[in-house]
Specification:
This protein is α/β, with parallel strands linked by helices. The protein is 30% helix and 21% strand. The longest helix is centred in the first third of the chain and has 20 residues. It is elongated.
Length: 243
């Protein structure tokens, strides 16, 4: 029997930000897989999915999402997760994998799809795009991501604050993901590059514990890991000045 693996982006946390196509894909799938940490706690993807499909249709699969130092342990978790999903696909039908944000932007789905593709030859892999945290933060804060010919640079601060500082020294808007544990270094980089006053950060977007604040209010204390930062360039010239 033919089988399909569909990565479905379910947005940054607000269940109202799942697309109609995403909801339809979740409901049409035989099984909806959600990633969980080895601590077993419910993640944002699972919480969002449960607004649209019954719990008995949801399968929790452990990924070492919080593992940053032990590469062997992390890859072993990916292999185990891939084998479990491959087992479902060998029976035929469609498996949807729910991921926060978009499945093609820093998503666990990428690793899963590569593993499953090797284990289940002929499996069809598809993705349904999702709304990203930077889009949601821009909407909630009023920040404009791009104007005219401005570039947009997305940086995961897990790559190091130096990478962020290099991006901030360039043109256009810089978006930083996963910077919470290095909030102090990020604030310093914004200050040194003259970007602090116009920057904004947010976490838990669309959830009860949501926080959206000016970056100038960061005091160096760690923030939630999944915090997002938008640092626009200084804009002048009036309307259409960047065209």
């Amino acid at each position: 029997m033919s089988s399909r693996l569909i990565g479905v982006g379910v947005g940054p946390g607000d269940p109202e930000l799942v697309t109609v196509k995403g909801v339809n894909a979740l409901r049409a799938a035989n099984v909806v897989v959600v990633p969980v940490m080895d601590t077993g706690e419910r993640g944002r993807a699972e919480a969002t999915v449960l607004h649209y499909v019954p719990a008995e249709k949801v399968v929790r699969v452990v990924f070492a999402l919080n593992e940053r130092t032990d590469r062997a342990r992390r890859e072993a978790a990916w292999d185990a997760a891939g084998e479990r999903v491959a087992g479902m696909l060998r029976e035929g039908g469609t498996v949807a994998f729910a991921t926060i944000g978009d499945p093609n932007v820093y998503s666990t789905f990428t690793y899963l799809a590569l593993t499953v593709g090797e284990l289940v030859p002929g499996v069809v892999v598809e993705t349904v795009p999702g709304i990203t945290a930077m889009q949601d933060l821009a909407a909630r804060s009023g920040a404009v991501l791009t104007e005219g010919t401005e570039p947009l640079t997305l940086v995961p601060v897990t790559a190091g604050a130096a990478v962020l500082k290099e991006a901030l020294a360039g043109p256009g808007t810089v978006v930083a993901y996963k910077f919470g544990r290095q909030a102090g270094e990020v604030a310093d980089a914004l200050r040194e590059t003259g970007r602090l006053d116009d920057a904004v950060w947010g976490s838990a977007l669309g959830l009860p514990e949501e926080s959206v604040r000016p970056a100038a209010e960061m005091d160096g204390e760690p923030l939630p890991y999944l915090s997002t930062l938008i640092a626009p360039p200084r804009r002048g010239g009036g309307r259409g000045g960047k065209l």
